[in-house]
Amino acid sequence: MSRLGWFGVLTTLVYIGIFCWLFGAQISEIRTLEPNELGDFFAGVFGPVALFWVVLGFFQQGVELRHSVETLKLQAEELKNSVEQQRELVKASRDQIEFDREINLAQRARHEVSIRPDFKVSPAGSSQSGKEISFKIEILNRGEIALDVWVFIEPPTYSGSKFRFQSIGRGEYKHVGVHFFENMNKGGDFLMTIKYSNKEGSEFSDEVNLTLAKKRSDGPFSELKVINSPPAQP
């Protein structure tokens, strides 16, 4: 029972005690009252007590209402804290997912590099027979195995512009030969494109610049210069 309840009970008992003390000697006279007079008497005696309990009930409702408001405030604060915690958890989860994604991308990139072929193209000698100039080009794979290797040269040379190798392993090299007619070529630039796949099937395309030049200003076009580009991305 609340404090107001105990206060009401105690006050009621005190009130009854005072009533008995004041009117205890007149109990015999009260018994002689008519029923309607007796009802009026009890109404007059206990009316203040009833009004007192009504007022006390209002106060009790006010106290309970304040408690309810405070409880609602506490619940609202807890809900706010819970929402904030959930927001922090969501942010932490999002950050963790982004971090894991970056880690996976970095691991994937390192893995791609570790299994990627790496070609180096170099001149491997030349020869001349009459007006025909022949160049041997070495294609060395310094990386992992390359599969289904295609080599294209543009514009096409006298000997052709397309070569194919089933595979070129790590440390392995292949040669392609290109031929020019001195009186048909005035030097110039050529583009060698190497298309291939790594062992997981990812496709790559590297480009190498070739330049047909003269060793001497008054000599024939008898020198092939090679400019390698960095390995391309898949």
Written account of the structure:
This protein is α+β, with helices and mostly antiparallel strands and 234 residues long. It folds into two domains: 3-111; 119-228, Immunoglobulin-like, CATH 2.60.40. It is built from three helices and eight strands. It has helices spanning 3-23, 27-30, 35-114, and strands at residues 119-129, 132-141, 146-157, 160-168, 173-181, 188-197, 203-214, 221-228. The strands form two sheets. A five-stranded antiparallel beta sheet has the order 4-3-6-7-8, with no helix packed on it. A three-stranded antiparallel beta sheet has the order 1-2-5, with no helix packed on it. Strand 6 and strand 7 form a beta hairpin. The longest helix is centred in the N-terminal third of the chain and has 80 residues, at 35-114. The radius of gyration is 52 Å and the shape is rod-shaped.
Beta fraction? 25-35%
So what's the overall shape? rod-shaped
Count the beta strands: 8
What is the mean pLDDT? 79
Our count of domains comes out at 2
Give the ordered list of helices and strands: HHHEEEEEEEE
Query: Percent range for helical residues?
Result: 40-55%
**Second-tier CATH architecture of the largest domain:** Sandwich
Please give the CATH class of the largest domain. Mainly Beta
- The helix tally amounts to 3
Q: Helix/strand-derived class?
A: alpha+beta
Radius of gyration: 52 Å
Task: Report the biggest beta sheet as strand number plus sense, adding barrel if it closes.
Answer: 5 strands, antiparallel
Q: What order do the strands of the largest sheet run in, or round the barrel if closed?
A: 4-3-6-7-8
Low-confidence stretches: none
